[in-house]
């Protein structure tokens, strides 16, 4: 096996999709597979999640690639597009760019597409104030888009929670009320719930849910992990020990000598580094698992390697597997805490140097 390797479990992805359906049995599912399916490999994930009612990506290029790889499900482009040429390409490939700007409404009212766009979504700014048309302007936008002749009558309203990972936050209720009111006024289907809302806010499920992180077996909440929500990690990141050696008291390890031996110590070097996407913020903070035992990461993370204190794991030897995250012994949520970041970042920044090994599918 090539190291380092992200082993992607198809059965875990499908288990997690089933958990989405368990939590939101009456809602359609728009599976979020942007950013190379959160670093898991978008083509393999799209195949694993083909029971979805639709996919969502961030950008036109992601959607075009999926079509070129034979994906036929509806594909929603969350960031939308802003030029006539891009709208024409979206129409040709039956893609669904989200409308979130008045300028997009203006453009669609001034051009003629090769065929009307289908499966159309309007982003509502219900309180996050990032992308979206304000609730009071939605009905006007709908009227103009319908009159343009460039969109069929298949519309939905979409929005995004800003604080759904903060369970009980009153701002979530305010956003939900905006969308419920618009649903009542327009009679259109609504898509609001992300992973955290799927798990914690059943009243927000409505017509469509839009899970991302939970599909990959990662908890969207701080201080919890996947197992607490009966999710299975879809990625196991592993590498291999490539060197093992002894050092004396006072000898330093790595760039800058940030770690010094306080006793005679055994050190291992593993083949992974920030060039693979393993964060430098894990320097002198994280742990790995070797032969079932946790071992500290010591010294600065290098581009290609990390150093590990093997003093308490005396049987470790060159060629041993090193688990970076992804099993019950060491979950990605915990590693993210060591790095002072969120699990999204750790999995999405893994570089193309990391081999993806798809299993059980």
User: How many distinct helices?
Assistant: 11
Mean pLDDT: 96
The figure for the number of domains is 2
Query: Mind telling me which CATH architecture of the largest domain this is?
Result: Alpha-Beta Barrel
Radius of gyration: 23 Å
One letter per element, helices H and strands E, the order comes to EHEHHEHEHEHEHEHEHEEEEEEEEEHHE
Structural class: alpha/beta
Ranges with pLDDT <50 over ≥5 residues?
Answer: none
Tell me the name of the CATH class of the largest domain: Alpha Beta
User: Beta-strand percentage?
Assistant: 15-25%
Instruction: Specify the biggest β-sheet.
Output: 8 strands, mixed
What share of the residues lie within helices?
A: 25-40%
Task: Give me a quick take on this structure.
With about 350 residues, the protein is of the alpha/beta class. About 30% of the residues lie in helices and about 20% in strands.
């Amino acid at each position: 096996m090539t190291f380092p390797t992200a082993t992607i479990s198809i059965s875990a992805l499908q288990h997690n999709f089933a958990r989405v359906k368990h939590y939101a049995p009456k809602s359609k599912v728009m599976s979020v597979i942007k950013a190379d399916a959160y670093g898991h490999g978008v083509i393999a994930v799209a195949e694993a999640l083909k029971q979805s009612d639709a996919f969502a990506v961030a950008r036109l290029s992601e959607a075009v690639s999926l079509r070129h790889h034979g994906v036929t499900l509806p594909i929603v482009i969350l960031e939308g597009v802003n030029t006539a040429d891009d709208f024409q390409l979206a129409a040709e490939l039956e893609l669904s760019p989200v409308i979130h700007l008045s300028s997009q409404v203006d453009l669609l009212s001034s051009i003629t597409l090769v065929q009307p766009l289908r499966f159309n979504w309007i982003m509502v700014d219900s309180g996050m104030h990032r992308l979206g048309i304000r609730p009071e302007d939605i009905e006007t936008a709908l009227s103009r888009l319908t009159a343009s002749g460039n969109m069929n009558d298949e519309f939905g309203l979409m929005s995004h929670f800003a604080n759904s990972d903060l369970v009980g936050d009153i701002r979530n209720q305010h956003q939900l009320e905006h969308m419920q009111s618009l649903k009542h006024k327009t009679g259109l289907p609504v898509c609001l719930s992300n992973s955290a809302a799927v798990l914690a806010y059943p009243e927000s499920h409505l017509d469509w849910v839009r899970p991302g992180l939970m599909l990959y077996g990662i908890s969207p909440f701080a201080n919890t992990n996947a197992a607490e929500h009966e999710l299975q990690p879809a990625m196991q990141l592993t590498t291999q020990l490539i060197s093992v050696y002894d050092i004396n008291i006072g000898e330093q390890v790595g760039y800058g000598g940030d770690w010094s031996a306080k006793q005679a110590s055994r050190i291992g070097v593993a083949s992974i580094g920030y060039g693979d996407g393993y964060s430098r913020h894990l320097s002198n903070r994280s742990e790995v698992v070797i032969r079932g035992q946790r071992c500290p990461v010591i010294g600065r993370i290098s581009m290609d390697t990390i150093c590990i204190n093997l003093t308490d794991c005396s049987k470790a030897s060159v060629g041993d597997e090193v688990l970076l995250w992804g099993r019950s012994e060491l979950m990605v949520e915990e590693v993210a805490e060591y790095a002072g970041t969120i699990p999204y970042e750790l999995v999405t920044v893994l570089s193309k140097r990391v081999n993806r090994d798809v299993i059980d599918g």
